[in-house]
Design brief:
Order of helices and strands: EEEHEEEHEEHEHEEH
Number of helices: 5
Strand content: 15-25%
Distance between the termini: 24 Å
Shape: globular
Low-confidence stretches: 1-11
Largest sheet: 5 strands, parallel
Helix content: 25-40%
CATH architecture of the largest domain: 3-Layer(aba) Sandwich
Oligomer: single chain
CATH class of the largest domain: Alpha Beta
Length: about 200
């Protein structure tokens, strides 16, 4: 957990975590001050004087882009990211691509439009946890109306509010579950309904 007093460096803010960037951007979008924020990255929580502690939030600019994408499903599974040894189970699925886009400092804070287009075409989004007990991929799958797939042993602190499947189980796609997941996501992980 750390508090950041965000400062400008050569006219640009510098962020350590994507979570920090998302929160600062979301606050700016709803015209709340974003110069003093605190991030509990491990537990996926954010704090500002105006919001107190809230779960991880996604900025409106990502939501708006993803909402504009067609959600016709032409593939079963999708994953693009780093495949560590504890994520070997991902290799059992078609649609699994290795990438360092999210780890590369030059691209980390840029929206990967192709990623969201590909995820939107998948029935299921492979969403392994990493160093923290949650993952961006879980929410990216939900945003794209795909059902998240967790590893057999993965514990995602946010998953209890969502319909998801596990690796090795039968995977049934249900658009109604996708819609319910998305409504839960909008309520819990955006500032769309935030009131001061």
């Amino acid at each position: 957990m750390f508090r950041r007093f965000l400062s400008l460096f050569n006219g640009e803010r510098k962020y350590k975590f994507l979570q920090e960037y998302f929160f600062a951007t979301a606050l700016e979008e709803v015209q709340l001050p974003n110069d003093t924020i605190e991030i509990d990255h491990y537990h996926g929580r954010c704090w500002s004087p105006e919001t107190d502690w809230i779960p991880l939030v996604f900025p409106e600019k990502i939501l708006t882009f993803v909402e504009s994408l067609p959600k016709e499903k032409s593939r079963d599974y999708f994953f693009r990211g780093f495949i560590s040894t504890n994520r070997d189970w991902l290799r059992n699925y078609s649609g699994c691509e290795s990438s360092d886009y999210g780890r590369n400092s030059k691209t980390k804070f840029k929206m990967d439009k192709d990623y969201y287009c590909s995820m939107s075409s998948a029935r299921f989004g492979l969403a392994p946890v990493g160093d923290c007990p949650w993952s961006y991929r879980f929410f990216e799958a939900v945003m794209c109306h795909s059902i998240p797939i967790l590893g057999k042993e993965d514990e995602d602190v946010f998953s209890e509010d969502y319909h998801f499947h596990r690796d090795g189980n039968n995977h049934e796609f249900n658009p109604e579950f996708c819609l319910k997941n998305y409504q839960t996501f909008l309520k819990n992980h955006t500032l769309r309904n935030f009131h001061r």
